[in-house]
Design brief:
Putative Isoleucine--tRNA ligase, 9 helices, Isoleucyl-tRNA Synthetase, domain 2, 11 strands, alpha+beta, Val/Leu/Ile-tRNA-synth_edit, single chain, 3 domains, coiled coil, ATP-binding, aminoacyl-tRNA deacylase activity
């Protein structure tokens, strides 16, 4: 399995190809037995659903995570190099996240339950052996820990592309962060109005199914029309650089994926949403423990914050503005 060492601490599952016969089962206790004993080749499909023990205890200690996770399978796993077993840490890669959702390893509603790296690129307090240390400076210690426990078969350095910060020339860390999205793929709900007549006949059921198909086709047509309108609106737009129009942005519009509108940089334009954590005795709103207020204008912001003549709307000014919470509202 090829990976950066810090992601091993947040592993939730292994991903295998169901048709490949490259996986081996060992009746052994440690790595020495692996290297000196015969093996049995089995299909990847036979590994699906099997329990595997986490390499590290840090994530397993969390209440939301089981110390034993199941293996999932799919055609994403390749065997053209390495072992053909993909290690999945869902909060450090988009593909890993999708695999864990589709494989029911997680639902996506748990929050950042298995993200062992903080916003400063250091290990979180859950990783008590390396807490507060820069993850890139812990590689050797993590590898040594695996060797000492005799669970590491082989380690090597490989040359591959990796993102670096253009300003500081330091390696970047790809990790999940809380974000705001525009739900571009919003699914229009079906008409669920109850039928006045209760009819279980085959004719009625067939008619009901036909109406449902018509409604689905209608929703699909509306979605395609919306995408076409977005593409038409994109044509007269001046993009800098111009290639973004039909490449990055154009392809995004065609796929109609959810759009991340939030940014973590300080100088970004603020999203006009204020939030407040709910008290224990307060009722949950849509299952969330946060109460949100979306401010629609400068006039409304002045009214809610009691701050007059607001002209500057960047974070160094608005971050300190507080909205007085009114329980009756």
């Amino acid at each position: 399995m090829v990976n950066t060492s810090q992601t091993l601490l947040s592993n939730l599952t292994l991903y295998v190809h169901p048709k490949y016969s490259i996986f081996r089962s060992f009746d052994v206790k440690d790595v020495d037995d692996v290297l000196n004993n015969s093996v049995i080749t089995i299909k990847g499909a036979n590994l699906e659903g099997k329990l595997k023990k986490n390499l590290f205890k840090y994530i397993s200690d969390l209440e939301q995570i089981s110390p034993m996770n199941t293996t999932v399978s799919g055609c994403y796993a390749k065997r053209d190099s390495r072992t053909g077993i993909v290690h999945c840490a869902p909060f450090f890669g988009e593909d890993d996240y999708s695999v864990c959702i589709s494989g029911s390893v997680m639902t996506g509603k748990e929050g950042l339950i298995a993200c062992s790296v903080d916003d400063n690129g250091c290990f979180t307090r859950e990783v008590d052996d390396y807490a507060g240390r820069c993850v890139k400076k812990c590689d050797k210690d993590i590898i040594k820990s695996l060797k000492d426990r005799k669970v590491l078969i082989k380690t090597e350095q490989i040359t591959h592309s990796y993102p670096f910060c253009w300003g500081s020339d330091t390696p970047l860390i790809y990790k999940a962060v809380p974000s705001w999205f525009v739900n571009v793929e919003r699914i229009k709900s079906e008409d669920l109005q109850p039928y006045i007549k209760i009819d279980c006949s085959e004719e009625y059921q067939a008619n009901k199914l036909e109406k449902r198909k018509e409604k689905q086709a209608e929703n699909q047509k509306e979605k395609e029309d919306e995408i076409n309108r977005l593409l038409e609106s994109n044509e007269p737009t001046l993009w800098v650089p111009n290639k973004i129009k039909n490449s990055r942005f154009g392809m995004w519009v065609k796929d109609a994926k959810d759009w991340t509108i939030s940014r973590n940089r300080f100088w970004g334009t603020p999203i006009p949403i204020w939030e407040r954590a709910l008290e224990d005795e307060e009722e949950n709103i849509n299952g969330l423990r946060v109460y949100h207020i979306c401010v629609r204008s400068i006039a409304e912001l002045e009214e809610l914050t009691c701050v007059k003549r607001i002209t500057y709307l960047h974070r160094d000014a608005v971050d300190d503005m507080e909205i007085k919470y009114q329980k009756e509202a």
